[in-house]
Amino acid sequence: MTKALMRQRDLTWPFFDDEHRTFAERLREWIARADVLDDERRADASSRAWVRSLGGADYLRACVPGEFGGLRPSIDVRTLCLARETLAYHSSMADFAFAMQGLGSGAVALFGSADLKKRYLPMVANGRCVPAFALSEREAGSDVASLSTRAVRKDDTYTIDGEKTWISNAGIADLYVVFARTGESGPKGLSAFAIDASVPGFSVGKRIETISPHPLGTLHFDRVRVPASQRIGNEGEGFKIAMATLDVFRSTVGAAALGFARRALDETAAHVKTREVFGAPLAAQQLTQAAIASMATDIDASALLIYRAAWAKDNGAERVTREAAMAKWFATEAAGRTCDRAVQLFGGRGVTHGETVERLYRDVRALRIYEGASEIQQLVIARQTLET
Ligand code: COS
User: 243 CA to middle of ligand 1, Å?
Assistant: First the structure.
């Protein structure tokens, strides 16, 4: 069976309808031919270029609800996952650009007022607004409820002071969805705000360089004044808004991991069939076959967990916290194992700059950390399992 046919077989799984199949096949053809700046040394320019191209080709419409230019009446998690899987197979930059249009605007789409949705979402869908999700702080990554950026209300205006870090799209975003403390300590004292990049007192600080570069940095808020109409949801609902937004997007992180892992397996399968060792192809070695079997099974198990979580959300489950956590945890860890096995089977070539598997090995690592580290996913799964 050819690789293309195997992929089509996955699309016949009961999680998908014809719209999903058409979307995934169209995107697969488009990305294979896309001629877009894709240079990790020019991460900002590459991300902007991918947003423009994905927007121009109508794919960003998957990131917003139908009323505001979206593909389907509400955000369809299976479409987001298919998109991330397909894009990540070809380019981590393309996947990153797509993913951030969704995560960055997700809180507005899910909880924003009609005015906020009208103002931002159509431009997110056509690529003219680049959004960012500004939650993490130096002392509040996994423990979000302890964040200390403050928003103090006087009449109809909030004044925001504080600092965020590890913010994707820092410096290139037009819209920052910012979580700040408006009340008591702990999760019930947080609120969310939509803040334009041009607002006085807002600035982008240090850029953070990582092993798989993308726009990432710190944000400073120095007496930033925001009208109450820019608040997303009610005061005190910020923690739930952040968590519920992450519930929707966490399985898509698993889907990106799946795309990287599929690419690593395809690269490895081609390599072991042609690379000769001890007078025979590397693929003839039983230890190679054991590695290939592990990679293939990890990939299928990841896909099943990811599309189960996405299907459950799309079919009206109020919360998919447990399913999304399982999908993200398993798929990102499995992709780490898969890319590591790929590097091992490539030998010296596997750690050489410029090799696809070397890039995949770097690309996949951060996924076990961001949007809820593997340890947080395990905590969430255990909690939910013990509660029932
Ligand atoms: N959807 C809706 N509401 C949620 C929710 C979700 N997924 N998760 C929690 N809540 C609600 C709870 O129901 C609870 O509300 P009530 O008191 O009204 O019942 C409230 O929020 C507090 O929840 P909880 O007590 O579980 O909060 P904790 O501080 O114990 O949460 C974890 C701990 C670790 C689960 C949480 O902080 C977390 O997920 N952290 C990781 C965050 C993350 O992904 N960081 C990366 C930033 S983005 S790169």
Answer: 5
What is the distance between the alpha carbons of residues 244 and 324, in angstroms, rounded to a whole number? 11
pLDDT tens track for 242-279: 999 999 999 999 999 999 999 999 999 999 999 999 99
Chain length of the chain:
388
Q: Contact, 217 vs 229, CB < 8 A?
A: no
Beta-strand relationship, 280-281 and 202-207: unpaired
C-beta separation of 28 from 8 below 8 A: no
Q: Which domains does the chain have, with CATH numbers?
A: 3-129 (1.10.540.10), 132-236 (2.40.110.10), 239-387 (1.20.140.10)
- Who lines ligand 1 at CB under 6 A? 135-136, 141-145, 187, 239-240, 243-244, 246-247, 319, 321, 370-372, 376, 379-380
pLDDT at position 238, please? Answer: 98
Known catalytic residues? 371
Long-range contacts of 376-385 (CB under 8 A, 24+ apart): 376/142, 376/325, 377/250, 377/325, 377/326, 377/328, 377/329, 378/325, 378/329, 380/321, 380/322, 380/325, 381/322, 381/325, 381/326, 381/329, 384/321, 384/322, 384/325, 385/322
Q: Is the pLDDT assigned to residue 5 strictly greater than 50?
A: no
Tokens 């889907």 map to which residue?
255
Expressed in angstroms and rounded, the spacing between residue 240 Cα and the centre of ligand 1 is 7
Threshold 0.90, pTM exceeds = yes
The whole-angstrom distance between residue 367's C-alpha and the CA centroid of its chain comes to 8
- Show the DSSP H helices in 225-320 as ranges: 238-274, 286-314
Residue 1 has pLDDT above 50, yes or no: no
How far, in Å, is the centroid of ligand 1 from the Cα of 142? 10
* Ligand 1, atom nearest to 145 Cα: 29
pLDDT tens digits, one per residue of 122-174: 999 999 999 999 999 999 989 999 999 999 999 999 999 999 999 999 999 99
Give the SS3 label for residue 166. Answer: strand
